[in-house]
């Protein structure tokens, strides 16, 4: 029998015009156009199954991200589909091991995010071939196999393979009961939808009240542009949701260390639950100083942390109270496994970053695995939720009473509808072509009226 092989690696630049409604706006990113550098792994197996994944960006530069993914094609084409699905870590190691491409990192930035996209596509294909969602594929796996998916290089001073296996073995205790509870009740969520900086106070209050009515027990507000505005907005949000709902604040890296301490303490009377990304995500010691300076307000970070080594140091330096993984920032599922294991060893809760394009769809799998088969708890753990762009995915998230329901479809929930890809492919998809034609017509009319 012929061995089924990966025959194509398609890469597509997909963009959505979210900046026009100020969705996603914050102190550092006032006009994001949520985008995806999208990859499809195709095989000649004849079963119709493909591996889909993407890296999230916010517009300009998505073409650069797509080019980085395309530069990895030669490492994947011709590989046995069965072999890579049996050991996604083999792809992770091969891509990270290209010495010439590694020079562009190493293990960070555009190249590392490209690796994550390809690795996540392998996991999507593997889960589809296994007939299970990724969270269950991980939860059902043997501890030794999962540990072999992790690259322990550079983190063995904080977590050894033996310790990882022990954590995963312990996580098997009661896993069946937790899986049943997950399928019944879902996983806790919080929402950022009320809190974008571009929203008016009226819209903020309306959406905050709606979030509570929808069952959310935590919301998040963007801060960092103007202190007086932040105090006013946080006060309005607190009045809208009452004292029993947590309000996190997110500065999106806006501040220097001293400024972060001063600004956060100025908000402290309004009881912010955590302050997120108070300074540069690369500043380990800065985060530690902020944490000491703003306690009891918690410090959270992670959506821009580049790799497992940076997360290791944040944990070793006791620099964060909340660790925020991102499904597409690091080297895919394999590296996020390493980060989840590090967080479990250090006892720091993981509250993933989501929103964007498809990040909610992906990251729920990682948190659900963590609950079912690693830490066994959802205490002080929530997944971010933002209510837009889900309609473009074949397996979109469902949130009920402030909880993510567990996906049951095979795969990583990363596959977009073909019609959405055709419409939003940049710059020649039907939406963007019509948009360009409208802009050209408006420009010609302007010239006629002069």
Automatic annotation (TrEMBL):
<dbReference type="GO" id="GO:0016052">
    <property type="term" value="P:carbohydrate catabolic process"/>
</dbReference>
<dbReference type="InterPro" id="IPR036849">
    <property type="entry name" value="Enolase-like_C_sf"/>
</dbReference>
<dbReference type="GO" id="GO:0000287">
    <property type="term" value="F:magnesium ion binding"/>
</dbReference>
<dbReference type="Pfam" id="PF13378">
    <property type="entry name" value="MR_MLE_C"/>
</dbReference>
<dbReference type="InterPro" id="IPR018110">
    <property type="entry name" value="Mandel_Rmase/mucon_lact_enz_CS"/>
</dbReference>
<dbReference type="InterPro" id="IPR034610">
    <property type="entry name" value="L-fuconate_dehydratase"/>
</dbReference>
<feature type="domain" description="Mandelate racemase/muconate lactonizing enzyme C-terminal">
    <location>
        <begin position="201"/>
        <end position="297"/>
    </location>
</feature>
<keyword id="KW-0460">Magnesium</keyword>
<keyword id="KW-0456">Lyase</keyword>
<dbReference type="Pfam" id="PF02746">
    <property type="entry name" value="MR_MLE_N"/>
</dbReference>
<dbReference type="GO" id="GO:0050023">
    <property type="term" value="F:L-fuconate dehydratase activity"/>
</dbReference>
<dbReference type="GO" id="GO:0009063">
    <property type="term" value="P:amino acid catabolic process"/>
</dbReference>
<protein>
    <recommendedName>
        <fullName>L-fuconate dehydratase</fullName>
        <ecNumber>4.2.1.68</ecNumber>
    </recommendedName>
</protein>
<dbReference type="InterPro" id="IPR013341">
    <property type="entry name" value="Mandelate_racemase_N_dom"/>
</dbReference>
<dbReference type="InterPro" id="IPR029017">
    <property type="entry name" value="Enolase-like_N"/>
</dbReference>
<dbReference type="InterPro" id="IPR046945">
    <property type="entry name" value="RHMD-like"/>
</dbReference>
<keyword id="KW-0479">Metal-binding</keyword>
<dbReference type="InterPro" id="IPR013342">
    <property type="entry name" value="Mandelate_racemase_C"/>
</dbReference>
<dbReference type="InterPro" id="IPR029065">
    <property type="entry name" value="Enolase_C-like"/>
</dbReference>
